[in-house]
Known about the structure:
The structure holds two protein chains of two kinds. Chain A is α/β, with parallel strands linked by helices. Chain A is 44% helix and 11% strand. The longest helix of chain A is centred in the C-terminal third of the chain and has 17 residues, at 186-202. Chain B is globular. In chain B, 48% of the residues are buried.
Amino acid sequence: xxxxxxxxxxxxxxxxxxxxxxxxxxxQLLQREDIKVIYPQAQTCCGQPAWNSGYRDEARAxxxxxxxxxxxxxxxxxxxxxxxxMMKLHYPELFAGQPDEAQALDVASRVYELTEFxxxxxxxxxxxxxxxxxxxxxxSCSSRREMGVASKIESLLDQxxxxxxLEQIRKTxxxxxxxxxxxxxPEISAxxxxxxxxxxxxxxxxxxxGQDAGCLLNIGGTMEKQGDAIPHQHIAEFLWERVKNxxxxxxxxxxxxxxxxxxxxxxxxxxxxxxxxxxxxx
Amino acid sequence: xxxxxxxxxxxxxxKPNVRANFRKAMDGLMQRRLDQFPDxxxxxxxxxxxxxxxxxxxxxxxxxxxxxxxxxxxxGIHVHWAETTEQANQIVLSIMQKHNAKTMxxxxxxxxxEMGLNHxxxxxxxxxxxxxxxxxxxxxxxxxxxxxxxxxxHKSRQDVAKLFNDKFPDIPYTENIDELTQAARTILRDKFxxxxxGLSGVNFAVAETGTLCLVENEGNGRMSTTVPxxxxxxxGIEKVVEKLSDIPPLLSILTRSAxxxxxxxxxxxxxxxxxxxEKDGPEEVHLVLLDNGRSNIYSDPELLATLRCxxxxxxxxxxxxxxxxxxxxxxxxxxxxxxxxxxxxxxxLDVHGELTQASTLCGACGEVCPVRIPIPTLINxxxxxxxxxxxxxxxxxxxxRTTAExxxxxxxxxxxxxxxxxxxxxxxxxxLRGVLPMQMSAWTNVRSAPQLADKTLHERMKEMGVAxx
Lengths: 282, 469
Ligand code: SF4
């Protein structure tokens, strides 16, 4: 499709509550490309947790509330492969035979995962203003296998001259999050995420970049508990940090929540948003 | 309370050696498969072909089964139908009894595992010996298979060496694989000649020609089906394909997906008992066609895809859960992703429904399945079957529904479909419990607790003046 003037932004519930900075950065990246962003304040959750637990009526009630939020024929951009996959691929299943099936199909047809949108629709060009940094990338299974957009995050990072990508072994293997799986089968999930954390740490990367808040919460939270955390960041936040003016923050300003987490000995300074760009008040 | 499944999982996760065996074996199998499909476009082309062959066969399953029976009968092969495993066992027993047979040599057959045939025959004074090396090892160790293609994959070379030394003290201790194999062969060779009946599985049954196809690497399948006077084949009703020309593409994708071999060492096509003037082959051949819940699966247009399976095992080789917990944790004949969808449909969601939770829905299984069974979609469907309130054809429908969980999802749903309440709730830490209505301790065991941001994205967007339309 051609570059649109206006898009809807669906922030996802995990970003809403835990990683708002990722959502803010995504919006800033889009705005910088001269796109008007609409953020429907009535948005809540895509409904996936209930859908994946088999509670289809409950999922549908929540999904139906979201369907009403996107009346204009413009793209819906979502900074998560998992939530994008829910809307794009599973709304059609969830609403099959329902009175609002046509609306669900229409919404589904306009859904883009953020990196997909940046690369395939905006053909975004990034200029890296950041210091050299080594990163490891974890692509969520939904981005990779459901949405088929795993190459997008890689190509975005490849545009950044000062960023070196390091590859963990078994990169494509699931981190063990799986939504409610992590709490329903905690032992299996733990065995998966502990290995994932180890393989990422073994790369020597200074930062972990992901495109789904669920995986980041899982892997990042595990590294933190282990006490040897590599800061983790959502791709939107990382990209914004690299391309915005003025120059990027020192590691100390990587904030505790909603952003990369520092594993340094020093206590993180309470400089929550210093240097994180315009449009933020605190 | 921790379920039986989770108990198995906890025990098996705590066995570093077994875990290492699985990890190493699965890594190897994944690589070998990958090496067989250097061209992704070509892989997709042959997956499409294989899927079409299996889907076509299922679309005319009743007719093809009739045609198969007629052709086999023409060819002189006796066909038996068994609705349940008990019936299948009885059929095998009565054939044995008719011949006054007390000994059986077995090629590898997952359907015979499904039937619990060895135990059943043993209880009737019949000695059934496994001749597949992996199955032979497991029979010695009194263990069930942990993988459908490589049943003893959880055992290391050292494990096998110790086992052999224990069971056959006359044979000198060795950890050399060739020597161990040779020892097993020597033991088995005699049994092949003395066994009265040979039993095997079937990989594909061709309706057009009445041909039973058997894929194997050790030659024991050929021995089991040709040396004894009577050969009994057991298989599920879904194994039928329409035409002989369906076989080459299926065989090729099966062996490449399963073990990363372009073709196996042996491929047997059995189309009749020994004919007059022929020097070898059994005098009598029987086929037992087992239903055991399959026709019920067949009645659901979506779940029917389960029956496309050609039992290659690629889904388990690529499953990050199977790789860690191993085949025995599942407590079923078929482990891994195929087991997750097949076993609850056969035995009921009330019996094996928890297995549907043993998946992150990462999609690795569906990505490699040679016949493109949408395994994650079917897992999701079975989770729904487990908690739905109305009736359906899947056994045990609704049996996984608990009042507490249903109430949690209801309250989550109510909150997340009332934005005013949701946004009010987002200000409170208690909100997170609304998003994930589960116990937090399961999360924080190995992870730090998620911390809520001071301000939600909703609030930040408002502050940034982002349009709300
Ligand atoms: S479900 Fe697919 S991948 Fe798994 S064993 Fe069957 S054919 Fe192979």
